[in-house]
Amino acid sequence: MHSVQCGGVVVEDYRALADELAADIAAGRLTPGQRLIPQRAFARQRRIAASTAARVYRDLVRRGLAVGEVGRGTFVRVPADVALADPGGARVDLELNFPVLPEQPALLARSLTRLLRPDVMAESLRPVGVDGTPAAREAATALLARPGWAPDPRHLLFAGNGRQAIAGTIAAFAGPGDRLGVEELTYPVVRGIAARLGVTLVPLAVDEHGLVPDAVRAAGRLRALYVQPTMHNPLGTTAPHARRAELAEVARELDLPIVEDAIYSFLREDPAPLAAHAPERTVVVESLSKRLSPGLTLGFAATPPAWTQRVASALRSGGWIASHFALDAATCWMGDGTASGIAEAKRRDAAARQRMVRDRLAGFDLRADPGAYHAWWELPEPWRAETFVAAAARRGIAVSPAAAFAVGAGRAPDAVRLALAAPPLDDLAAALDTLAALARRTPEDAGVD
């Protein structure tokens, strides 16, 4: 620690003090959402000038480790990747969204009986290409088809999971230094993918109907768009037919490829995907992670004919290829109706959970599709997202702050995403009641310090 003695008072370099607090944050001794002691108290504790204490706190804010709010103090900031973190000791997980129904294990196991025969297993031990097998293409085409659109089996590619399909498709169109347009609140994994590829994400405005077409026009030169037009994560919005048509027209006007993330689209049958409006420039990315489970999954990229080889090359070069056994297992589940049956059961389950949210959080500012597995909650004053997340965690409930989804340097809204899929219904009801009671109090009354 760099310090000097001056009139009996130790004067420390503010940067060294900021480093010390930063180390406490990194080690978990200061937790996300925790309020730092007031600056004057910190100055007295460290025997430094109030102006030096102010510089320490400003430096933490500059580093992105803290956020300040006039009249309330300075708080440890929730890290941007918090939505990807393990909820750890949380008793109720409303952070990670992987729906698995109790009846799934028996249904999935029943379909694999034939696959486990030695003669059939021998074929599954061989490597497979990104174009899969004829049986897999046929089964996936039937599973992914929607009213008004169906993938062409000749141009359907397979990855290990949905994240890999997204990564490979983005890599096919954007490289280091390129700009990728995304909704201003987006799937956090895309931020990590872009960082590894050296791609700059450009946040684009959204409204109650999804991505705003004029925001795409005003964004300057983009190499591609990544959008979630159906059951957007985290906002839960679904773009209507007219908005999809407008976005397709803008993409043609600007000659932009579109990466359409349709991971949650199995939860509703309408409207037709964006690819139905711009089939020549839209790659639809899907997976079995939500339809079935993250541990038994497969990723899909339905490509326009002109771009099939381009996306295939990116998937191969990234090593994002499905294993043959996973492909054959998924083909069984897709082909015999198991996947469709589980998806139908999940639609009923998600709708029941949404009804519970609307009941238990009545009176709050919520946004969600009636059939979605997540809800977006604009918190009441004076709650800040980071503080609410910390207070919920102390009550054994893990939720995701808006900052986990925000793209760009602007301050994220004071909102949280509630992932509804994981807890049993009784646990979900109790957790929602706890969160509602918490939100009706002030942070001070709730014991947030």
Task: Please outline what is shown here.
This protein has three domains: 74 residues, Arc Repressor Mutant, subunit A, CATH 1.10.10; 115 residues, Aspartate Aminotransferase, domain 1; 213 residues, 3-Layer(aba) Sandwich (Aspartate Aminotransferase, domain 2), CATH 3.40.640.
Task: Give a written overview of the molecule.
The protein has 3 domains: 74 residues, Orthogonal Bundle (Arc Repressor Mutant, subunit A); 115 residues, Aspartate Aminotransferase, domain 1; 213 residues, Type I PLP-dependent aspartate aminotransferase-like (Major domain) (Aspartate Aminotransferase, domain 2, 3-Layer(aba) Sandwich), CATH 3.40.640.10. By secondary structure, it is of the alpha/beta class. It is built from 15 helices and 19 strands. The two termini are 27 Å apart. The strands form 6 sheets. It has a 7-stranded mixed beta sheet with strand order 6-14-13-12-11-7-8, sandwiched between helices. Strands 15-16-19-18 form a 4-stranded antiparallel beta sheet, covered by helices on one side. It is globular, with a radius of gyration of 24 Å.
